[in-house]
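Hey, resending since the last one bounced:
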Amino acid sequence: MAFHIKNPETDALARKVAAVKKIGLTEAVHTALAHELEREQGRPSLVELGVKFCRDLRAKGQPAKGQPADKAFRDSLYEDV
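The structure tokens again:
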């Protein structure tokens, strides 16, 4: 299957990688794409980051020292100052 790189800068980068590693152009592109895919798949998703953030925040909290958020408190947040 043919693969054509239309961007001259991308073509030059692929050729430089192939020359430095002393491998063929196809192998250079394949290796670069495989490494990039591996790197992306190793990153946590936004959901995982959000869950971790919430867990870390909860671990830092001290609910025993807090005040209850009753109706009067919530109403006070919306009063004009």
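DSSP finds four helices and no strands in the chain.

Sorry for the duplicate.
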